[in-house]
């Protein structure tokens, strides 16, 4: 049962989250990120591994002279068999690390779908899955065209220690 307080909270979340989103597939699900954080979408390219990084950090790429760390979202979310297909690509996004540092990061996804305009009425608060499920990286859930799309908070996809590891991988990449 929805309480008046929860209904107000959901409405406020939707008002803050309405706008344009880039949608992409990971396994059988559709995820979305605020299009304002997307810098570009590139084909899958050679990724240079950096030693002692978490498995989901694929390594770094050289994008027009700039070293960009690359995170495989499929591995980050615990999906198995992250195979590369002709549709696999890297979405280069800008994430906020801490209060002042912004970093471009590549996200490996199965395929890019579309840019979608979501109204506040289409967005709901992230459901409570209990303490066993980590939902810190979810902004909310959108219902559009009869499908559910999970809205990602790019600034929270990485824990602070993981963001620090990305900074180290970028620094290591400068010597490549």
Care to describe what's here?
The chain has 176 residues and is of the alpha+beta class. The protein has a single domain, classed as CheA-289, Domain 4 (OB fold (Dihydrolipoamide Acetyltransferase, E2P)), CATH 2.40.50. The chain has helices at 4-17, 73-76, 160-173; strands at residues 19-26, 29-34, 38-43, 57-63, 66-72, 89-97, 101-109, 111-118, 123-124, 138-144, 147-152. A 6-stranded mixed sheet has the order 8-1-2-11-10-9. A 5-stranded mixed sheet has the order 3-6-7-5-4. The radius of gyration is 17 Å and the shape is globular. Mean pLDDT is 81; it is low at 1-14.
Q: What order do the strands of the largest sheet run in, or round the barrel if closed?
A: 8-1-2-11-10-9
Query: From the 3D coordinates, which CATH architecture would you assign?
Result: Beta Barrel
In terms of DSSP E residues, the strand content is 35-45%
Order of helices and strands: HEEEEEHEEEEEEH
Overall average residue pLDDT: 81
Rg: 17 Å
Structural class: alpha+beta
Unreliable parts: 1-14
**Main sheet record:** 6 strands, mixed
CATH C-level category: Mainly Beta
CATH fold annotation: OB fold (Dihydrolipoamide Acetyltransferase, E2P)
Cα end-to-end separation? 56 Å
Roughly how much helix do the residues carry, as a percent range?
10-25%
């Amino acid at each position: 049962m929805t309480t008046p307080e929860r209904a107000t909270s959901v409405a406020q979340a939707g008002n803050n989250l309405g706008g344009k989103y880039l949608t992409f597939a990971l396994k059988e699900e559709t995820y979305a990120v605020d299009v304002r954080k997307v810098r570009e979408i590139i084909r899958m390219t050679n990724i240079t591994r950096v030693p002692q990084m978490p498995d989901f950090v694929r390594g770094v790429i050289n994008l027009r002279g700039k070293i960009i760390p690359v995170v495989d979202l499929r591995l980050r979310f615990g999906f198995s068999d992250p195979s590369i297909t002709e549709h696999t690509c890297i979405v280069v996004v800008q994430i906020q690390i801490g209060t002042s540092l912004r970093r471009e990061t590549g996200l490996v996804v199965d395929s890019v779908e579309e840019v979608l305009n979501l109204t506040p009425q289409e967005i709901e608060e992230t459901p409570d899955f209990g303490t066993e499920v980590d939902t810190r990286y979810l902004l909310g859930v959108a219902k559009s065209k009869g499908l559910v799309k999970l809205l990602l908070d790019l600034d929270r996809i990485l824990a602070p220690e993981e963001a620090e590891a990305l900074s180290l991988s970028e620094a290591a990449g400068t010597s490549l």
